[in-house]
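Journal club prep — side note

Before the paper discussion, L.F. wants everyone to see what a predicted structure for a comparable chain looks like in token form. Sequence:
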Amino acid sequence: MKANIKKFFIPVLCLLHMTALFWWTLPHSFQGMIAEDIQQTTIEAKIFKWLGFAENTWPALFLNHYIDITASQQYWDFFAPQSPRFHQYLSVCNAINTDNKSGEISCKGSVLFSNLKSDFDTFKLFSNSSRYYRLTETLINLNDPELLQAFTKYYQSHPSQGFSNNVSVQLLVHQFEMYPDLKEIPKSGYRIDKILWERY
């Protein structure tokens, strides 16, 4: 009986894991950007919409929860001998505020987009924080002006934000330098803010 359960459980677990990883790597992962950009009319858009469970949210919540619990969003750089020295986050601002004392740069007024959380100790279930973190790493490491502009313009012109294309916009990177061996350093690390791309 136990052998039969194992024969059934192991293939199901493998299938679940492969399905979750496949779903995780799809371009739909950033709020359906591709489907929205092509107005959800073409065959490609319908396929992305179906694979992304755009009309059926519970499978997306379940798979996202599974990815977070199993830490399947991790990548080799995290465990490599020369692991990343920074936690990195992005913010798209309509206006910015600079603290002359601390040097911190933050959004002033409305925030068009930000994956920077104020509480680093909180694990938020069913969130897209891991997806946005991976996207952040890619954008910053590639440092391609066209990609940075495209990312910023998407959130600047997104209908739900209510901002027109003629307003100023800044793309900020928030880096937190990690020193795991120093107990007096905050868990988030030293903060360094930079403007990656801006338009006036």
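L.F.'s comment for the group: The chain has two domains: 1-73, 80-200. Keep this in mind when we get to the figures.
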